[in-house]
Give the backbone structure.
Amino acid sequence: MEPPVVSEPAHEPEPAEVVPVASPSIQRDEAAPTAQGTATRIMVLANQKGGVAKTTTTLNLGVALREMGHRVLIIDLDPQGNLTMSQGLNPDVIERSMFDVLVHRIPISEIIEQREVDLAVASIDLAGAELALSAMIGRERALEKALAEVRASYDYVLVDTPPSLGLLTINAFVAATGVIVPVQCEYLSLRGLVQLENTLAMVRENLNPHVGVEGIVATMFDGRTLHSREAIEILEENFGELVYRTRIRKTVRYAEAPVKGSSVLKYDPSGAAAEAYRELAREIVAAKEAEDGAQARKHA
């Protein structure tokens, strides 16, 4: 299954021309039952546009969930290895990584590093994973099968994906119970949401009937600018309750923390940047608890 090709505009159109048209199929997905019967959430952070704070959100949301007492695994599925580097590890010298899990089928537990949260690391080899997987039977289910070993050990699994809709991202969607979409507060960043949903629709039809957008988180928000405020209005008009109330604001702290090999919650624990991700974590957990309660009442 080939994902849809996303064409970039030749030039930046006027703001009124780039308002995304919401797909009626974008709805908050109900919790999918797991093979082990657990309530583990596998949440994929995805957006084919780069520079929208996917890695920042994956790490800091994971650490915030860990602070709340949840068992958390974060997975670096991006060949750039930024999530791995954000925890003080060098992808260029890692000998075994997610590449070996997906391609050579080694147990994922063998490449998990215990850092601020458990981290399934990436290495430079991951850049060749899509080519290696393309010749394999069941290539879209490699991550799903790998997670079967450890799924019951975690409450939340967060997957950082590449800025593309290729085979690595498809693997993440197949394994996912839901997708969180970080969206930078600018007009052109909003355009990719419909293309991403088109890919999710294909995955639902062919590979994972339960996967859908769980939430949209606005990143790099600057409340002082009209541009950011209008971007939020467009998101809420088009996607309604899918948009998390939490706004991840622009701050230099998000750039400084990875240099120290840490999350912003460890680097500046009492700062506004850390509190934003704690608030996002509380919002996600509350939504999960509400959905779990609804499911329990439905089957009572």
In short: Residues 1-25, 31-38 have pLDDT under 50 and may be disordered. The longest helix spans residues 272-299.
